[in-house]
Amino acid sequence: LEAPPGPQEPSLYTVKALLVLDSLGQRLLAKYYDSTFPTAKEQSAFERSIFMQSQRAGGEVASMQGLTVVYRSSGDLCFYVVGGGQENELMLLSVLTCLLDALGHLLQKEVEKRWLLDNMEGTFLVVDEIVDRGVILESDPQQVVQRLSLRVRAPILLHGLPLSCLLPAPSSPSLPPRSPSQHPTASSSLTTCQAARSRRTQGTATNKQH
Known about the structure:
Elements: E1 15-22, E2 27-32, H1 40-56, E3 61-64, E4 67-74, E5 77-83, H2 89-107, H3 113-118, H4 120-130, E6 131-132, E7 135-136, H5 141-151, E8 157-158, E9 161-162, H6 184-209
Antiparallel strand pairs: 1-2, 1-5, 3-4, 4-5, 6-7, 8-9
Helix pairs in contact: 2-4, 2-5, 4-5
């Protein structure tokens, strides 16, 4: 007699796919981290299947095609994180929550399709800070945003503003806060952000006049 199979070995490769679909089920962003769906045709069929099932089912967790899928809507988008059939649902949900919170922090409102399309580069960078080749790197959205600001050399524009203008200012618990005039670098950064906001406001007003 063959021995029964033992418990599944734990693996760092937790996430099989991360997807963002619009309200019609069309793909806006997709990252597949293993060979579960090796071809574009299989990926497309899987995306249609989970979209239809998530529209019918309530809640945030479902078992689809032997996989664990967690999902959540935001505006006119639906976000999915896919793991193995035995994967920890809470761990997958932590990835989903981190992604939505990090994007929401940068956007400063609910994530929507129009913004996502206008800021696809920044969105991919956020995803890569959370999951790398299926391994969960981070589940704290504040850490994701801070690391992203240090990682990129060229400024990423969100709302027409540099990413650094949307980040919380670093603080030190042991020192009293300095005013911008006492800190040349902070003063320069503040001036840059104010100028960027001013240009964006003027551009918006001009567009409305036309």
